[in-house]
Amino acid sequence: MFAAWAIAVTATMGSLYFSEIRMFIPCELCWVQRIFMYPLAVTLAIATVKKDARQAVYTLPISVIGALFSLYHYLIQKVPALSEASDVCGIIPCNHQYINYAGFITIPFLAFTAFSMISILMIYVIMKTKE
Fold first, then answer.
1. Distance, CA of 124 to CA of 122 (rounded, Å)
2. Please, which pLDDT band fits residue 85 given cuts at 50, 70 and 90?
3. Please, which residues have CB within 8 angstroms of residue 88's CB and are 6 or more apart in sequence?
4. Which of 13, 14, 47, 63 has the greatest number of C-beta atoms within 10 Å?
5. What does the pLDDT read at residue 36?
6. DSSP letter (8 states) at residue 26
7. Residue 19, C-beta contacts closer than 8 angstroms, at least 6 positions apart
8. DSSP alpha helices (H): ranges in the chain?
9. CA 58/CA 3 separation, integer angstroms
10. With contact defined as beta carbons under 8 Å apart, do 60 and 126 qualify?
């Protein structure tokens, strides 16, 4: 639970760094991903302090849904057929890439990685508590 909490806090701080310090304006899908990530930082902190493994059952759906939104956002950025339709996403188009390290690491990719790692850890916790 502590590792999942550390990932969620890192992702939360990363999103705040990009928007508040680097002044990157989040697109609509970035806001949706934040809606799923920020509560994970709080609920996993509580679960870690209380040593409550049952919270894994509640955080797993949130992290899986967040991962799906992140994957969709990443595909919008990287698949040309999807990229064309996202120009009308809002003030900042969802296909805009503020960062693009090594040709594939974008902000949605980082979010997808965090959500996926949290999901894997929650599945592990659920399996361990059933034993």
1. 5
2. low
3. none
4. 63
5. 97
6. P
7. 25, 26
8. 2-16, 28-50, 55-78, 80-83, 107-130
9. 16
10. yes
Q: What's the pTM value of the predicted model, to 2 decimals?
A: 0.92
* pLDDT confidence of residue 91: 81
Architecture of domain 2-130 in this structure: Up-down Bundle (1.20)
- pLDDT, position 123: 97
Task: Write out the two tokens for 34.
Answer: 């934040």
- Integer-rounded Cα Rg, in Å, for the chain is 15
- For residue 101 the two structure tokens come to 């390290």
State the Cα–Cα distance between residues 122 and 59, nearest whole angstrom: 7
- At a CB cut-off of 8 Å and minimum separation 6, what does 111 contact? 11, 15, 33, 37, 66, 70, 73
pLDDT band at 86 (very low <50, low <70, confident <90, very high): low
Q: Residue for token digits 């967040």? A: 66
The residue type of 21 is: I
Q: Which amino acid is at 48?
A: T
